[in-house]
Amino acid sequence: xxxxxxxxxxxxxxxxxxxxxxxxxxxxxxxxxxxxxxxxxxxxxxxxxxxxxxxxxxxxxxxxxxxxxxxxxxxxxxxxxxxxxxxxxxxxxxxxxxxxxxxxxxxxxxxxxxxxxxxxxxxxxxxxxxxxxxxxxxxxxxxxxxxxxxxxxxxxxxxxxxxxxxxxxxxxxxxxxxxxxxxxxxxxxxxxxxxxxxxxxxxxxxxxxxxxxxxxxxxxxxxxxxxxxxxxxxxxxxxxxxxxxxxxxxxxxxxxxxxxxxxxxxxxxxxxxxxxxxxxxxxxxxxxxxxxxxxxxxxxxxxxxxxxxxxxxxxxxxxxxxxxxxxxxxxxxxxxxxxxxxxxxxxxxxxxxxxxxxxxxxxxxxxxxxxxxxxxxxxxxxxxxxxxxxxxxxxxxxxxxxxxxxxxxxxxxxxxxxxxxxxxxxxxxxxxxxxxxxxxxxxxxxxxxxxxxxxxxxxxxxxxxxxxxxxxxxxxxxxxxxxxx
Length: 485
Fold this sequence. Notes:
It comes from Kribbella jiaozuonensis. The chain is of the alpha/beta class and 485 residues long.
């Protein structure tokens, strides 16, 4: 018996999706050719057309990625990594479009993650939700001779170009596209705001816990040289194309651990164990997002920027360091990452609290806030928020906001006590209402940020408007430049 389901004609051919929960859902549609063989380490190329009807029932295989946290949840295999997924409430409409970019330290992530299921956002918010895969690690962000920089960002631009060309057929309005992402996904959104290649592809943007890390070309090239040396090859396209992706991932993982003691060589990147980040190469990414936004590069794009209150606590728990931090640990963090004044500004803080604050501020909280400040300096509109729920356990930790935004709150069982899940649903409703309202109108439901009043939305089980709650840290970092490492 032949399959039935909603059909849509894209620029490369007909696709057939499935009807699920009142939505038309399409998974695994190629937006670019597989970046393998001669296309490995190249800029993304348009997908090949096909004849007949292509079934779009399953997520495409995840891109090659770090195995530090185990294998991807999506077991699909193959090299057709660059695929897009769509959840649409109505195919013959012109609804706002929300395009998600996943996080994962630019080394892990995939659009088939259950946390990113677009069902509730699309159905309850009356928006078309799009997710997609992009290249990671060396394939996406390694700086190697003979290849364009920031191929993962170029993949994102290609996905947005696919949205521009195709989303009307799925019931979306190509002139009302909101890009949103968390962690490295938010860093990617920030980079897209600064990229000439991405100009005009989206109207609104949301950054959830955007990291401030970017690399200079010499640092990125030096890191790639060392990864290639582990494989006994030169850091060139010709040599690395011969290396199986699994071997390249394994070498990258080995290097991420080995680099951490080499602070004198790689600085903060080594100290925090971050081998990949967008490269400010002067072409694909001409300037840091902070500099570009302050000069008005994205003044026509409305922005929400925010973070969680207790960003780094989850990462401390994952490393087994909660309750095990010493004064020496705090002193090292202050020396490598922080501006002066933390001890005086937080006189009652324990060593662990200082350590957590410094890492939270350096990596996520202050860069997120600085994006909003840069946007208003450049003449644009910005809205700021902080997730401050819950107060128990790991607190409002990094990544907690993702299931809250998508309404996939049952997945929070590993972070929250069962009795907290009903409250999580309340917080989730607030996020989904604000995010989809922003996609529709450009107004999430609280005042624009300005340098005088600094009004932000505080997300707990209620949404309250308050002066920015991290003012002490904001003042400490006011003179700090988040320049490329």
